[in-house]
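Pipeline run #58 for the internal structure catalog. This entry was flagged by the ingest filter as a single-chain record with no existing model, so it goes straight to prediction. Upstream metadata was stripped on purpose; only the residue string is passed forward. Reviewer on rotation: M.T. Logging verbosity set to normal.
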Amino acid sequence: MDHSPVNGGASISLSELLRNINYQEYELSIICNSNTLISKYERLVSHAENLDLALFQHTTAGWWKFSLRGFKEYYLWMVGHFHSMKHIENLISKFQPDIVHLNSLTLVFYLKHINKMNIKTVIHVRESVVNGYFGIRKKIIKDAIEKYADHVIYICEDNMRSMRTKKGVVIYNPVNIQKFRENIGSNLRSTLKIDKNAPVILYVGGLRSINGPHILAKAFEKIIKHIPDIKILLPFTTYEHSNTMLSIFKRRVANYLGIYSSRQIIENEINRLNIKNNVIQSGYVDSIEEYFCITN
């Protein structure tokens, strides 16, 4: 089961994992949370189903705070969780799996239901849990893992320390080193019209605030001042924002109050400093290894 609403680190890592499973010994099926990703997974598994999975948000990627909005999101999660669980039970009956792999801590509360169906479970923790106000939700999550998960995989030591479960092992995300060939970096330089001697900075964190795009944007001025000919690559930092009347109204009110999205912060700094020739933005990049090689 994959929680990913869009392409990103978790879906890439899961895809790499699927590619390296012995297809002669295992038959793979997947429940994914995105119409965008289902075609990607269909090429890697025997069966793929799209299902709106309810995600429990209590990680460094985002968590529900003590507010009207937080209570609303919690209520919607409860409704969505039990609705999607009925569909999951039907799909599990259909596929008859021996093991169910949950690709994120945000899926933790499906463990109990799957465990009751006498199916082995593995949860892949790809994010750090937050303490919250009193640590109550963190304890509930921890107890759910220890009681209902047969195996726990953490992608780093920090994630395991933050969760503090008695069970679990750290397995770092796989990297296919063969993808990092010397020539692909030079090919991309040519495509992006970057001089072969021009210095390059690569930021791959997208627009999620936890990854610090606003911090990088604030550093633009100092970077350009010291290295005027530098190119700053920002893949996955462009998208078509909603132009509905409600969305436009919300943006205007937020901007009036001095609140800006990560996208707006980046665009404002680029325009203020007049550095459009230095910054190269794009949408989601499927072959990010090319961008890493361009910095060599």
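catalog note: The mean pLDDT is 89.
catalog note: The first strand starts at residue 29 and ends at 32.
status: ready for reviewer M.T.
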